[in-house]
Amino acid sequence: MREPAAGRKVVHVNSKSAHLELLGVFEFAHDGSRIPLPLGTQRLLALLALQKHGVYRGAAAEQLWPDCTPSRAAANLRSALCQGRRIRSVAVIDSVGRRLRLSPSVDVDLYRMRKTAQEITAGLSPLPADCEAVVNELNQELLPGWPDDWLILEREHWEQARLHALESLAHQLQTAKQYLPALQAATTAIAINPIRETAHRIVIEVHVAEGNTACALKHYHNYQELLQQELEVSPSQQMNQLVQDLITTT
Prior knowledge:
alpha+beta, 250 residues, 3-stranded antiparallel β-sheet, Serine Threonine Protein Phosphatase 5, Tetratricopeptide repeat, 4-stranded mixed β-sheet, Arc Repressor Mutant, subunit A
């Protein structure tokens, strides 16, 4: 199994001894120790984590091995179950009739970060003590490089959740006059989706607040050029007015 990339988050230790990471790279850990798993078992655990209410065995086999015959897919599922039902002393997969589900005893990083993203977006929590760590975790993709079709919609859901959280965090930091972390959050959102305008406006507003008028105008013109090249459209009236106000006051 691949080693975590530089800057990756560490396993969060809590009351649950089993931890599953889906953001960045797949990792399964027990009591803080990372455990290598066969690819089929990795994919099964990931599918069950994303389908919290469980998946029927036949549907799981079909989704995980769509290019195999039904009998071969069923055999692959049995093998993955054999490796993943219990890992060390932990029951990881529960069977309820023909339905499989991830055991509630397994902590999943995606669940925790979805909750964090929701709280940030709704403004329900104070600014984090370590903004950089939160931004780094929101910057993690859901199982990058995995080609499975059943990940497409889940990736879209996660991308929207983290974009809104990063933009909300950047706005809250800007309001609190914490300009450097505000820029870090906003530019991270821009890297995820360069076309989306919200974070670009925040970057311009932060530059203006810091008195960097030239930087604000340069960022606007770069974004304007990007939109023209990619979509042949212009920035919104809201952004144009922001820059017009800036030009008027200089």
